[in-house]
Amino acid sequence: MTNTNKNITCAVLGATGMVGRRILEDLSKNPWITVKIVAASPKSAGKSLFSVISSKTQNPYCCDGFSSDVAQLIVKDVNDVKEIASQVDFVFSALDIPDEKIIALEEAYAKQEIMVVSNNSACRWIDDVPLIVPEINEHHLAILKAQRKRLGIKKGGIVAKPNCSLQSYIVQLHALRKLNPHNIVVSLSQAISGSGKLLKDVPKIQANMLPLPGEAEKSQKEPQKIFGKIVGDKIVADEKLHINAVSYRVAVEHGHTANVFFKLRQVHKTKELLEIFGKFNPLKEYNLPSSPYPVLNYLGDDTYPTPKGDILNQNGMEFTYGGLLFDQESYMYQFTGFTDNLGRGAGGGAILTAELLIALEIIQSKSK
């Protein structure tokens, strides 16, 4: 059942930040979702979105990617929860404030009986908040029943999306789940925009790479929740899934790359794996506007994705990979995966999640 209602309205919380701006750009041509409200910190409230962003970025063309009317919207204070929630069907949350304040605000919006699609890490480990990659764990949305009971609501709720770096490789591993991938090792090279900055803002990253131990832990733990099961009123992590990860911030503006090594329960020819990847399209029935096809784009055995070459593939929404190889001595498979961390990994991934919620009628128009 696909809802093609083109009158779904949203607010973008944290609209002046890097991820918020990407959400607004990607929504400029979205046929299902219309931006009605933009919100940010109290210091930005009362000014036009264009004036706030241009003063932050020193770029007079900062809003050229937005729809013509969005740039002139007056920024509202994100703390005006009731006023904002009363005027839209749901909100995107891309807030850059301390975690405890994010949790309080997102739950406050949910208690106004609207859905919150969150880019933030704050709520990811709450037991009844689903951590959604639309192609993997749509079934986890059933936990919203328990979340709503906890919050004392009927229709609202919070859906989170995972860390952007995971999406450079996790969908490929999911496509092979029936073959039992294990002994998984991932080396991540994460772009500087993953920290909300540009190269020019971080002198020490120039011609350098910086270790990110906290990011490695996310690559080890978040997949366990994504592949976990609903037990009672919580999502129980799959602790049998073990990923060894190391992560570096590298001197790349946009795009996260993952070098992935793994074993399978039985040896399969790489041709078989490519056939599985090629047929992978679990969201086909919904016809979501932002869903890429092919979902997994293979560049070749001897070809590897690159940030500059592949950042714009399908508007940054596809999972690009290459170099699928099998080593006869170690029985290890390997591939190199890549995603646009601001597109698929952040803003675009949140939009795709919202589209899935609309298709499932979890998000509905108040005018319906």
Question: How would you sum up this structure, described in words?
Answer:
This protein is of the alpha/beta class. The protein contains ten helices and 15 strands. It has two domains: 8-163 and 346-359, 3-Layer(aba) Sandwich (Rossmann fold), CATH 3.40.50; 165-340, Dihydrodipicolinate Reductase, domain 2 (2-Layer Sandwich). It has helices at 18-27, 49-57, 81-87, 99-110, 144-151, 170-175, 213-226, 270-279, 307-310, 343-359; strands at residues 8-13, 33-40, 76-77, 90-93, 115-118, 157-160, 182-190, 209-211, 229-231, 234-236, 243-250, 256-263, 296-298, 319-327, 332-339. The chain has a seven-stranded mixed beta sheet. Strands 3-2-1-4-5-6 form a six-stranded parallel beta sheet, with helices on both faces. Helix 9 links the parallel strand 13 and strand 14 (319-327). The longest helix is centred in the C-terminal third of the chain and has 17 residues, at 343-359. It is globular and about 65 Å long.
Layout of helices and strands:
Elements: E1 8-13, H1 18-27, E2 33-40, H2 49-57, E3 76-77, H3 81-87, E4 90-93, H4 99-110, E5 115-118, H5 144-151, E6 157-160, H6 170-175, E7 182-190, E8 209-211, H7 213-226, E9 229-231, E10 234-236, E11 243-250, E12 256-263, H8 270-279, E13 296-298, H9 307-310, E14 319-327, E15 332-339, H10 343-359
Parallel strand pairs: 1-2, 1-4, 2-3, 4-5, 5-6, 7-11, 13-14
Antiparallel strand pairs: 7-12, 8-11, 9-10, 12-15, 14-15
Helix pairs in contact: 1-10
Relevant terms:
single chain; 368 residues; alpha/beta; Rossmann fold; Dihydrodipicolinate Reductase, domain 2; 2 domains; seven-stranded mixed β-sheet; six-stranded parallel β-sheet; 10 helices; 15 strands; globular
